[in-house]
Design a protein that fits this description.
- This protein has one domain.
- 63% of the residues lie in helices and 4% in strands.
- It contains nine helices and two strands.
- The chain has helices at 9-19, 22-31, 37-55, 69-76, 81-98, 104-110, 126-137, 142-147, 149-161, and strands at residues 58-60, 63-65.
- The radius of gyration is 20 Å and the shape is elongated.
């Protein structure tokens, strides 16, 4: 019924890539929220699992084995979902920083909620997580740099290359 030629890696990659503009949908939803470390770990595992299913096992010396993480990464050749999400958060941060002060989004971004926080260790806010990522990248004066588009684009591009982000 189905030909084995249809199941080529190139064909499957072609199906996976547009489908995972779901990355964009998931990324947009998660942009507004803090991504806990455990969730990023699980998200990366899930993405590799899907890619392993798409690219299938490999035959070495007559024995079949699963592809390693590095093999999957090389075959797919694009950034993982978590890095794309964090890169998107940097783009959004630069966009909001450049907005005029009258915009509702800018006012919400700058606003500090009133009232008291619950007892115990305070949960991290979105901005705390973004600041930590910027600190890991070694970005200083990020508020000033975000107002210069070309400078901010280089910061976003650096986020793509940084391992462990």
């Amino acid at each position: 019924m189905y030909s084995t030629n249809i199941g080529t890696e190139h064909f499957k990659h072609g199906i996976y890539s547009p489908f995972f503009s779901l990355q964009n949908a998931v990324g947009f939803i998660i942009l507004a929220y803090l991504i806990p470390v455990l969730f990023t770990f699980s998200l990366r595992i899930w993405e590799r699992k899907v890619l392993r299913k798409i690219f299938g096992p490999i035959c070495v010396a007559g024995y079949w084995r699963s592809r390693t993480n590095e093999e999957v990464r090389q075959l797919y050749g694009e950034l993982d979902m978590v890095t794309e999400i964090k890169k998107g958060r940097f783009r959004w941060l630069g966009h909001v920083e450049r907005m005029s002060e009258e915009r509702v989004v800018k006012r919400l971004y700058q606003n500090t909620p009133e009232g008291s926080r619950s007892v115990g260790r305070p949960s991290l806010r979105w901005m705390d997580d973004v600041r930590e990522d910027l600190r890991m990248m070694g970005v200083t004066n990020w508020r000033i740099r975000s107002h210069r588009r070309d400078d901010w684009k280089t910061v976003v591009k650096e986020a793509k290359v940084l391992k462990g982000l």
